[in-house]
Amino acid sequence: MRFSNRRLVCLTLAAAFGAVVLSMPASANHSWGGYHWARTSNPFTLKVGDNVSSTWDSFLSTTISDWSQSTVLDMTRVTGGAKPRNCRPTAGRVEVCNATYGNTGWLGVAQIWITGGTHITQGTVKLNDN
Known about the structure:
32% strand; six-stranded mixed sheet; 2 helices
């Protein structure tokens, strides 16, 4: 990754988080394909697993802070439960990882797992250092 691309990478991280976590069942306009985290009230707290290197720490901190200003969502940074290269999900939270994933054409990619047709159970965000 070239550090001159930090702004683009930060935007990619924010977009990936947005796709994964800003999902509300009350309106299809605020959900990702109708998928949403199951919850009983707003705001709800979502744990974010920190599996990123020090290069990414400030971006992750800023993203967590920005999303936590929402009236729907509070994010809490927790110790990562994944190895960055594999970035396996952990139930009930989003794991954020960075590694050299190769010349894939993407800077960041978000993935979710669902149950019951629409409820997100876990997610990952991979940031490509290639």
